Amino acid sequence: MKLQDRMTSNLREITLASRLFLALAALSLCVAVALLAWYQGAFTPTLRVVFFAGTADGMYQGMAVKLVGFKVGAVDGISINNDLRVRVTLKIDRKYVPMIDAGATIRLAREGLIGGNVLEIRPGSGDAGPITRQSILRYEREPSIETAAATLVDQMTPIVINVTQITEYFSNPESEFRQAIRNVNRTAASLNEASGELKKLIAVTADRVDRGEARLGAALDTAGRLMNSAEASVAVMDRSLRRIDAALPGIASKMDESLENIRATSETVRRMVNGELTAVVGETGGLVSDSADVMRGAKRAWPVSGLVEPRQELLLRLDSGGGLSPVPVGGPAGR
Amino acid sequence: MQYALLLLAVLAVAGCGSAPPQSPADVRRDRMVETGDRAQRAVARGELERAAMLYAEALRQAESIEDFGATGLYALNLAAVRQALGEADAADRALAKVLDAPRRHDGARLAEAAGRRAQLALDAGRLDATEAWLERAERECGAPACGARTALLGLRGRLVLERGSAEEARQYAKRALDASRADANREEEANALRLDGRAAARLGHAGEAEKQLNQALDIDKELALPRKIAQDLLELAEAALLRGDRAVASEYGDRALEVSRAAGARPQQEAARRLMEKLR
Q1: Distance from CA of B13 to the nearest CA of A (A)
Q2: Which of A277, B28, B131, B260 is most buried, by the most CB atoms less than 10 A from its CB?
Q3: Among A300, A318, A333, beta carbon nearest to B19
């Protein structure tokens, strides 16, 4: 009887203990869920605003929304409208609401060169007042390096085409320019010939005038013919030059166009180099430097420090054969 | 109680696992040493241009914190790499950082720097300058800190050989060989054998020269030193030429050209080309 009482009492104790344990476990689970929910912002008062985008590429639910580098909210939902526009709903932490005006712009940006995408809020002029429930914000995509490169290619294409056209025009033997130049060359050659003949004739004429010869009339006739021929040549040359003159404005305009394109392109390149690329390179540099710092810290931390060999400075010692053989530096070497 | 102990243990491990704090000065020094390490790795990979760039940066960092020890070290390393690249003027400028400030560096560093300047002068055929710098290096090189003694012996042997005393050069080579074996310095052992081989060739002992040079080649191959292998092959070609065997000389020349081309060793590549032109 006594044994039965003891057993009953023990069983009661075990039951009580197991119930207590279960209650504690359930309580812990509830606390954990509550903590997780709190961490996820379930108890944070929020405000929902909307923006429309052309594509949902790079966006996902839960994605961070940042204002001057601070996380102020997250993407609450992404849906598609009948007109194929993407509607994105943002959940903004209420305490940041006064800092965001209804004229603000949402921008899809990348965190560093290899970082993930974030939505960045760019403050507006402030005239529209703070955002309210279901405010519709403006959206823009950050121009990527690929876009910049594509723009550059687009701008370069007409330049290349123009240069090709000009080169073809000048090198084409049938072009008016080449024909005109040929004519000018031919005419200049015949003028040169005529000038020689004329010089000879004048010399002969002067000689004969001096001698009072009767054949002077015939000589003057010949001179007249030559003068006529020269006049014809000059007329041809004049025509050719006129044609060149007519063609030149077209060429000049094409050159002007090309130069303007080159100027615009160089401006794009300058902007890329001064702005976008510098930022990318700067961020990469920071990333590399941060990674190096992290690695340095990890190497010095236990237990990794025990696995990493202590640093040993090496000297490329003098080698009579001109080789490069490193040896550990022993002791202080500076005075 | 057990949970409390476990929690304490976890906290203790986390405490041990955290990196000790570093002062900005430590961070600067760490960065400098790291740049030096990267340069060293570049040397090991045979990327000498990159190594030179990194040593120059490490030198700049050392100078910016007036760390004379590191300045001397990186200046010497930079000079060694520049010399290997065939950029004698740049190597000389790096050495000036040590030699122009003798009060900041100890004897061992000064001996290294003077020895390297002597080597540059010897390569350029300026024998009087070689003599002067070699004397200074020998003066500064005091035991036991100075590890350049054997190299200086080898350089003295090379100078003597250039001055035409092949017999004396062989004596220096013998001393250098003994010293290198005593120090277990395989690179200098091969250098001494190469010097001996060259001196023997100058004396007309082609067979002996080839024997010594082949030993040097074996060591250099074992140590995988491409520039030295190319040098050995060039010397072997000269020795074969001395025997009048143009075919063998040409084969050695081809091998030297191939090795120096693969290693990107410009001076040896040019020497091999000159030899091949001579053989045509």
Answers
A1: 9
A2: B260
A3: A300
Token pair listed for A1: 């009887």
Q: Is B34 in contact with A296 (Cβ distance < 8 A)?
A: yes
- What are the residue ranges spanned by the domains of chain B? 177-262
**How many alpha carbons fall within 13 Å on the CB side of residue A278?**
7
Smallest Cα distance from B8 to chain A, Å: 17
Residue carrying the six token digits 């955290």: B18
**Which value, in Å, is the radius of gyration of the alpha carbons in chain A?**
45
Q: Which of A315, A321, A335 is opposite residue B76, by nearest beta carbon? A: A315
- Across the interface, whether the CB atoms of A323 and B76 are under 8 A apart is answered no
A259 in reach of chain B (CB within 8 A): no
A113 Cα distance to chain centroid: 13
Q: In which band, very low, low, confident or very high, does the pLDDT at A117 lie, cut at 50, 70 and 90?
A: confident
Q: Which residues pair with B105 in a beta bridge?
A: A334
- The pLDDT tens digits of the residues spanning A268-290 come to 565 555 555 545 555 555 555 66
Contact A296 B155 (CB under 8 A): no
Residue B138 touches chain A, beta carbons under 8 Å: no
Residue A325 gets the label, from left (phi > 0), alpha (psi -120 to 50) or beta, of beta
CB pair distance less than 8 Å for B187 and A323: yes
- Rounded CA-CA distance A155/A190 in Å is 48
pLDDT in tens, B36-93: 988 999 988 888 888 999 999 999 999 988 899 999 999 999 999 999 888 999 999 9
B71 in contact with A, Cβ within 8 Å: yes
What's the predicted TM-score (pTM) here?
A: 0.51
Short-list A88, A11, A7, A18, CA closest to A54: A88
In Å, how far is B232's CA from the nearest CA of chain A?
10
Q: What is the per-residue pLDDT across B8-46, written as a single tens digit (0 to 9) for each?
A: 666 555 555 555 666 777 778 888 888 898 899 998 888
Set of chain B residues whose Cβ sits within 8 Å of the Cβ of A301: 17-19
Confidence bin at A246 (pLDDT 50/70/90): low
Closest residue in chain A to residue B157, using alpha carbons only: A320
Taking the C-alpha atoms of residue B39 and residue B33, their distance in angstroms, rounded to an integer, is 10
Spatial separation of the C-alpha atoms in residues A187 and A36, rounded to whole Å: 95
Measured in degrees and rounded to the nearest 5, phi and psi for residue A78 equal -130, 125
- B177-262: CATH topology: 1.25.40
Neighbours of B151 (CB within 10 A): 31
A300/B20 Cβ within 8 A: yes
Instruction: Mark yes or no for CB contact B119/A292 under 8 Å.
Output: no
Written as six digits, the tokens of A157 are: 């294409």
- Any idea which residue has 């909210």 for tokens? A73
Amino acid A271 reads R
Q: Looking at A183-304, which runs of residues are DSSP E strands?
A: none
Give the model confidence (pLDDT) of B165-207 as tens digits: 999 999 999 999 999 988 888 999 999 999 999 999 999 998 8
Q: Which residues in chain A are contacts of B176 at CB distance < 8 A? A: 320
